[in-house]
Amino acid sequence: MPQTLVPRIRSEFPSVDGTPTHVLKCGDFPPDQDKKILYLIIPGNPGVVGYYDKFMRELYRAHGGRIPVWGVAHAGHVILPDHVRSKNSDASKGPYGLHDQITHKISFIKNHVPRDANLILIGHSIGCYMMLEILKRCPEVNVLKGVQLFPTIEHLKETPNCSRMMWMMPLLSFFQWLAVFLAFLVSFLPDVIKRWLLKLVFVGYKLDQGAVEASLNLFDPNVINTCLFLGYQEFTQVREPDLRCIRQHLEKLIFYYGATDGWAPVSFYQRMKNTFPQGDIHLCERGLQHAFVLEGSAEMAGIVAGWIEQATAAEGGRAIDT
User: Which member of 125, 215, 280, 297 is catalytic?
Assistant: First the structure.
């Protein structure tokens, strides 16, 4: 495929309800396409959209450059550039909880996404929970498909990862402020030292450069504080799955569970499959991890693009002309 079909990703910082928000955009709507179709990625936690850089480019490439791909960061999860911070010195409202992040995404869609766009929403991890809330609260938004990647949409306290952390829940406040304090100290180090520290943390991983740059945000104390605050609310608020919403939008939804996912174990896949046997619900057979953005972006993009092509063909037409 010609390299021109994968343009440089644009980085923008629109104001969403007064909060400067990092948005990545890959590609534009083809001028000869009657129906505007747009991928919109809702990240997990940390909600640093830079982690999805390679995934976005590969997804765009997989469709031959016919579908633009956008990704919107969570509020407060990204270090703002100096020129953005200087114009929004009074804009900080954090830390942002789970409800705040949901209303933030709804506001972004209503005010910054073209109204005539047909959305393919991609949620990752807690982004899947946010996607279901968008479907429930915004029936006026035209969503063609909702792709749920490694969904954390139910019973987080029952997951293996959360169970291993339960012993420290009474000390969570202490550990949160310790993490924030350490991030404050590390934030004064030059980026070259921070990148060296990341190599130690991710030893054994073959990280894409975009993932490395995205991880630099986690050395900021405000970002860490907001990520941990959101994580705590996930543990306490993500309980029963919204089966009514899933049932209502089942034909639009595609679920992809991991075979070794500590945040959404196989038992959750089996329960969802038993509840909705007619649903498009998959269990990974390729060894992809919950944090697929670290090493499995290209493979995951190919899988998603295949689903969308197959789905549109099954609906009796080529809504996506590639």
Answer: 125
Where would I find the H helices in the chain?
53-62, 82-87, 98-112, 126-137, 160-165, 172-186, 191-201, 209-215, 221-237, 243-248, 266-275, 297-314
Task: Look up 261 and say whether it is catalytic.
Answer: yes
Q: Is 116 tagged catalytic?
A: no
Virtual CA dihedral for 48, 49, 54, 55, nearest 10 degrees?
Answer: 110
Residue 163 annotated in active site: no
Cross-strand bridge partners of residue 41 = 71, 122
CB atoms within 10 A of CB 89: 7
Residues 112 and 5 sit within 8 Å (Cβ to Cβ):
no
**Which residues are 37's β-sheet partners?**
118
* Overall fold of domain 3-154+239-314: Rossmann fold (3.40.50)
What are the boundaries of each domain within the chain?
3-154+239-314
Q: What is the pLDDT along the chain (322 residues), one digit of tens a residue?
A: 444 467 789 999 999 999 999 999 999 988 877 789 999 999 999 999 999 999 999 999 999 999 999 999 999 999 999 888 877 765 557 689 999 999 999 999 999 999 999 999 999 999 999 999 999 999 999 999 999 999 999 998 888 887 766 655 555 566 777 888 888 888 888 999 998 888 888 887 887 778 889 999 999 999 999 999 999 899 889 999 999 999 999 999 999 999 999 999 999 999 999 999 999 999 999 999 999 999 999 999 999 999 999 887 766 545 455 4
The catalytic position among 53, 208, 220, 261 is: 261
By DSSP bridging, strand 23-26 and strand 10-12 are: antiparallel
Whole-model pTM: value is 0.91
Report how far Cα 192 is from the mean position of its chain's Cα atoms.
27
Q: What is the DSSP string of 29-97?
A: --TT-SS-EEEEEE--SS--GGGGHHHHHHHHHHTTT-S-EEEEPPTTSSPPPHHHHHHTTT-------
Q: CA Rg, the chain, in Å?
A: 19
